[in-house]
Structure formats: structure tokens, C-alpha cells
């Protein structure tokens, strides 16, 4: 297998939150041991993020997940910069209909 420097994981909100209570994502640097966390804004909760690569850097890309917005009961595509894990998401795109939790995807390079 290929050795990786970075990995991303879901952050579980803990007791008192609704079912499937992922409240954010965290990036781990396996070389330095450092980590940085991104919490979903506005009380949103969602699913596991999928990494969509952009460019040559191992951590160059975006984390994509569907989130539930309790403010208006909508489903959104929530996008985080995987390199910086900026507290402000790259985009939050409202979907035209509900997307059930558990929907999974995988980004595979065209040449693979």
C-alpha cells in the first residue's frame, strides 16, 4: 500500500444529539501528530466526509458531505477545504430534496 501523511475522520457530537450525530470533521497529520478540526456551522449535523482531490498535494482537495440544517429542515452539500480546514466552509449548497443519511460516494481518478 501507499503511505499517507494525512487522514480525515468524522467528529461525533456525543450524547444528547440526534441519530447519526456527526458534528464536524478532523484532519490528522500522521507525520507531526497535529490535528485540526472543522465544526459544521449553525448546529448542522451530517455524515462522513468524502475527499475529492484537486491538484498534486496529498491534502489538496475538498471534503464533501451532506448535512442536515435544523433551522429550515433542509439537506445541504457542505464543502470544506481539506488542506486548511478553514472554519468557514467553501460552500453550503441546498439540495432540492432530502438526501437520506448513509448515502456514500467515492472519488476515483479517471486513470484508475
Radius of gyration: 14 Å
Q: In which range does the helix fraction lie?
A: under 10%
Measured between the Cα atoms of the first and last residue, the distance is: 15 Å
Low-confidence runs: none
Mean pLDDT over the residues: 89
Overall, the morphology is globular
Summarize the structure.
The chain is 0% helix and 42% strand. It has no helices and eight strands.
Task: Provide structural commentary.
- This protein is mainly β.
- It is built from no helices and 8 strands.
- It has strands spanning 6-12, 22-29, 35-39, 45-46, 50-53, 61-69, 74-81, 91-94.
- Strands 4, 5, 6, 7 and 8 form a 5-stranded antiparallel beta sheet that branches.
- A hairpin with a 7-residue loop joins strand 5 (50-53) and strand 6.
- It starts with 5 loop residues before the first strand and ends in an 18-residue tail after the last strand.
- The mean pLDDT is 89.
Amino acid at each position: 500500500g501507499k503511505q499517507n501523511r494525512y487522514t480525515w475522520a468524522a467528529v461525533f457530537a456525543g450524547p444528547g444529539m440526534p441519530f447519526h450525530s456527526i458534528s464536524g470533521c478532523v484532519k490528522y497529520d500522521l507525520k507531526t501528530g497535529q490535528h485540526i478540526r472543522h465544526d459544521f456551522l449553525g448546529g448542522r449535523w451530517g455524515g462522513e466526509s468524502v475527499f475529492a482531490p484537486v491538484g498534486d498535494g496529498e491534502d489538496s482537495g475538498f471534503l464533501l458531505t451532506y448535512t442536515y440544517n435544523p433551522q429550515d429542515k433542509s439537506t445541504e452539500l457542505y464543502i470544506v477545504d481539506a488542506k486548511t480546514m478553514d472554519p468557514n466552509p467553501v460552500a453550503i449548497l441546498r439540495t432540492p430534496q432530502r438526501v437520506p443519511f448513509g448515502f456514500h460516494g467515492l472519488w476515483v481518478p479517471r486513470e484508475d
